[in-house]
Design brief:
- The protein is mainly alpha-helical.
- The chain has a domain of 55 residues.
- It is 49% helix and 0% strand.
- The radius of gyration is 17 Å and the shape is elongated.
Amino acid sequence: MNKSRKLIEFIEKQNIRIDLYYLPVYSPNLNLIERLWRFKKKKLLSNKYYASFTRFRNVIEDFFNRRIHRMKKDLTRLMTPNFELFS
């Protein structure tokens, strides 16, 4: 586990409240960004075909620029840091 002293010092110096969660080295189920990527994959890629890379890129951009805001309820439930760690 990487617990950067420089990061901790920076946060303390800025006098802001940030909760740091130290995760095991490989734990995509605990990493919130990995949950977002999985959500995006489920919504955009499951059983779908895009005829060109340009179309695929446009769908991804549209998802993050417009559609994601309409999925707030689902994302709020998915992107919670409330998880259990088993040792």
